[in-house]
Amino acid sequence: GENVEQHPSTLSVQEGDSAVIKCTYSDSASNYFPWYKQELGKGPQLIIDIRSNVGEKKDQRIAVTLNKTAKHFSLHITETQPEDSAVYFCAPRTLFGNEKLTFGTGTRLTIIP
Amino acid sequence: GAVVSQHPSWVICKSGTSVKIECRSLDFQATTMFWYRQFPKQSLMLMATSNEGSKATYEQGVEKDKFLINHASLTLSTLTVTSAHPEDSSFYICSARGGSGSTTGELFFGEGSRLTVL
Fold first, then answer.
1. Which B-chain residues 61-80 have CB contacts (< 8 A) with chain A?
2. pLDDT at B115
3. Can you tell me the mean pLDDT for B27-40?
4. Which of A22, A88, B23, B37 is 20 to 30 A from A43, alpha carbon to alpha carbon?
5. Sequence-distant (≥ 6) Cβ neighbours of residue B108 within 8 angstroms
6. Looking at the complex, does the CB of residue B109 fall below 8 Å from at least one CB of chain A?
7. A44/B106 touch (CB, cutoff 8 Å), yes or no
8. Which of B32, B43, B108 sits opposite A105 (nearest CB)?
9. For the segment B40-99, what is each residue's pLDDT rounded down to a tens digit?
């Protein structure tokens, strides 16, 4: 199965600074790379995703970069705000293939006002 | 966007009783739904895959007689925790894959149901 690792496990960032979270995976067949944000007591919400035919995708303050050769992809949050504080999970998989999501271990991001 | 609704959002029950959690896809048909369990400060662990009209597929180590899953319609899957015990206390989350017509196979998550067994 897929081995998924996230780094760091916790991250504290001053408001306005940038945050980067890295996800490393093992299954070379993975072609879909989403990032989820989970706020306390809620289910995960997709915030950004990327497919294997694209190296980078940006949506306002959030971006995802993919290095398929090295099997890792990263979440970048710029101009961080207090509401960005949450736990972030990556969950690489094969679209329309094995649907078993293997979530990363999660990264607790704290934005310091 | 697609919405997945879970009910109840939280429930407290006595040890030995059974609890049913519902997962509904509100604006799309979901042939496949997934049930996860999450312990505090841990990641989500897949418990089972629920397919409409057929038996659920359970992950290794998950007791199918303990966690009964029913997916009787394209918009509803239920998880019943039978004879609940304190160690079953957890956060249960469902997700549904975009149905026919979905080009992304995107998974949508419910808000989760927190179960506390006394």
1. none
2. 97
3. 89
4. A22
5. A46, B1, B2, B3, B4, B25, B95, B96, B97, B98
6. yes
7. no
8. B43
9. 989 999 999 988 888 899 999 999 999 999 988 889 999 999 999 999 999 999 998 765
